[in-house]
Amino acid sequence: MGTAMGASYPAPVDPRTKPVIFWGAWLYFGPSAIGSLWIIGSTLYPVITGKAKVGEIVDGLAMMLLATLYGALSIWTLWAVSARYFRRTR
Questions:
Q1: Where are the domains of the chain?
Q2: pTM of this structure
Q3: What's the distance, Cα to Cα, between the start and end of the chain in Å?
Q4: Burial of 33 by CB count in 10 Å (0-12 exposed, 13-18 middle, 19+ buried)?
Q5: Average pLDDT, the chain
Q6: Which of 17, 27, 56, 78 could form a disulfide linkage to 84, CB 3.0–4.6 angstroms apart?
Q7: Could you give the C-alpha distances from 39 to 9, 11, 70, 81, in angstroms and in order?
Q8: pLDDT category, 13, cuts 50, 70, 90?
């Protein structure tokens, strides 16, 4: 009994991301990335200037942790989608 020598799945014709996915990712994750950076900055500003109280710092750490994680996810997603969208095809 013979076996197939080729790949079971052919290579995609166009490996670039479609424009609708590119713009959809930017519309969804763009404001999230900017918002998370805003939350991190507004949480750190009182700490840096010395106007924050101890209770505010503890509450701000949890908020900043969540904003950092979601911001990193948003920025990574935007980077990956944009890199595939602007990739040159051979």
A1: 19-85
A2: 0.70
A3: 37
A4: buried
A5: 83
A6: 17
A7: 44, 42, 11, 24
A8: low
Q: Is the pLDDT of residue 3 over 70?
A: no
Whether 83 contacts 15, CB under 8 Å: no
Question: Of 4, 2, 16, nearest to 86 (Cα)?
Answer: 16
Round to whole Å and give the CA distance between 10 and 5. 12
How far, in Å, CA of 17 to CA of 78, rounded? 12
Please give the radius of gyration of the chain, using alpha carbons only, rounded to the nearest integer.
21
Q: In whole angstroms, what is the distance from residue 4 CA to residue 62 CA? A: 55
Cα separation, 34 vs 45, in Å, equals 16
CB 32 within 8 A of CB 74: yes
Tokens coding 88:
């040159």
